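=== RUN LOG ===
request id: a7f3
mode: sequence -> structure
chains: 1
length: 299
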Amino acid sequence: MKNKFAFIIVIFTSLMLNLNAQSDSSNSSKKWTFGGQTTINASQSAFSNWVAGGENSFGGTIFGNAFAKYKSERDTWDNTLDLGFGLMKQGKRPIFKTDDKIDFSSKYGRSMTKYGHWYYSALVGFKTQFYEGKSSIDDTTKNSTFMAPGYLSVSIGVDYKPFSNLSIFISPLTGRTTFVTNKELSNNGAFGVMPGHKAKFEAGGYIKVEYNQPIHKFFTYNTKLELFSNYLKNPQNIDVNWENILNFKFNNWLSANFYLTLMYDDDSKITITNDDGSTHQSARLQVREIFGIGLTYKF
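=== RESULT ===
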C-alpha cells in the first residue's frame, strides 16, 4: 500500500515538473501563455504523558495546477490541469486518504465578431482520482477508486469572456459519460450505472463559470462553478460542483490556503439511518473543506 502511495506521489511530481519545463518555452510565441503552481501542506501532532489525551498524527496534502492558453484575434484555446492528493496517519490506524483529484479541461473558442466577448466554443472535460477511497478511516470497504468514477464530457455552446479573469460557458448540448471500471463497484450499481455495467451516458445542458480575482496584494480568490442537467432522467435534479480557493501569500514560498468544495450529484448516494434504525440510500449535499499552511512554488 505504501508503495502505491509513493508511486502516486512520483507521478504527481513528474507531471508538475514536466509542466514547469514546458512553461520555459512561453516566450517562443506571444500567442501562448503557460503557468501554474504547486503547493505542499503538512501538519503533525505528538503526545507523551499528555493527561488530556490525544493521538499522534501526521498529514500532508499536495496540490498542483497548470495551464496552457492560446489567444489570437479570433481564437482562444484554454487548457487546464488540476491535481490534488492528501494522506493522514493517526495513531495506529491505517493510512487514510483525505484528498484525491484529477481534473483536466480543454476549451476552444472562435469569436463571433473580431473584437467581441462572445465565442462559439467546444469543451472537453475529464475527471477522476488517483487511488481508492473509503467513507471513513475505519471502513474496510472502498467506495471509489481510479476511473470509478471517471467522468468524460463533451460540450458545444457559447463562451462569454467580458474580462480576462471571467469565463461563462453555456452549453445546451452536452454528452457526459460516467465510468465505473471497478468490478465490485460496478456490480453494486455505484454512481448511477446499472449493476454490472461499467458506463452510463447522459445528454443534457451544462454551465461552467470560472473567476479569479486578487483581493489584496497578499490575497487571491479563485472559484469554479459547474452545473449539469440530464435531459434523459430527472432534469430538475441539477448536479452541482462548486470549488472555492482562497490563497494568502506570506512571501514567494510560504502561503496559507483554504479550499472549500460543495457538490451535489443525484446519482451519488449515501446511507441514511432513519429514526427507527432502518437505513435508506439518498443523495445529499457534499462538503469538503481543507485548510493548510505550506510551501508554494509558482511558475
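=== NOTES ===
Confidence is low (pLDDT under 50) at residues 19-29.
DSSP finds two helices and 16 strands in the chain.
=== END ===
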